[in-house]
Design brief:
The protein has helices spanning 5-20, 63-80, 106-114, and strands at 27-34, 37-46, 51-60, 82-90, 97-103, 122-129. It is of the alpha+beta class. It has 2 domains: 1-80, Double Stranded RNA Binding Domain (2-Layer Sandwich), CATH 3.30.160; 81-133, no CATH class. A hairpin with a 2-residue loop joins strand 1 (27-34) and strand 2 (37-46). The longest helix has 18 residues, at 63-80. It starts with a helix and ends with a strand.
């Protein structure tokens, strides 16, 4: 019996949220058709400072295929990427924020911080590669 694609989608999204320790109300699954493929941008929303950040981008031949690729990524990314802590603030505000990113390098972590926002609107105070646990 074939699994209903909507049920599989809901299960995968829920499992992704569990793997990264966030509820579905803090995750945005943004699909974009690109030529013959579908890009999936997983965006996290931080309820403390009400900002969103790119978690990762995957690609597939369908939405479900891209979601499966995202699930595979979240299960294994800790083995392939480093963890970074970035301290930053929004221009015009006096609040220092601390955010955490997984990326292959410092530039990748900064790209996730700057995703979908004007880089000139943020001041970065520090980027630290976290120790391997």
């Amino acid at each position: 019996m074939a699994v209903d694609k909507n049920i599989e989608t809901a299960q995968l999204q829920s499992e992704i949220g569990e793997y990264i320790g966030m509820g579905l109300n803090s995750l945005v699954f943004d699909y974009e058709d690109k030529d013959a493929t579908v890009l999936l941008k997983l965006i996290t929303v931080n309820p403390r400072h009400n900002q969103s950040f790119l978690y990762h981008i995957t690609e597939g031949i369908s939405k479900l295929d891209a979601l499966r690729a995202m699930f595979d990524y979240v299960k294994s990314h800790k083995d392939r990427e480093s963890s970074y802590t970035i301290q930053w603030s929004i221009h015009g505000e006096n609040t220092l924020h601390t955010s955490y990113f997984s990326a292959k390098n410092i530039q990748g972590a900064l790209d996730k911080l700057y995703f979908d926002r004007d880089p000139n609107g943020i001041t970065v105070f520090s980027v630290i590669m976290n120790p391997i646990s």
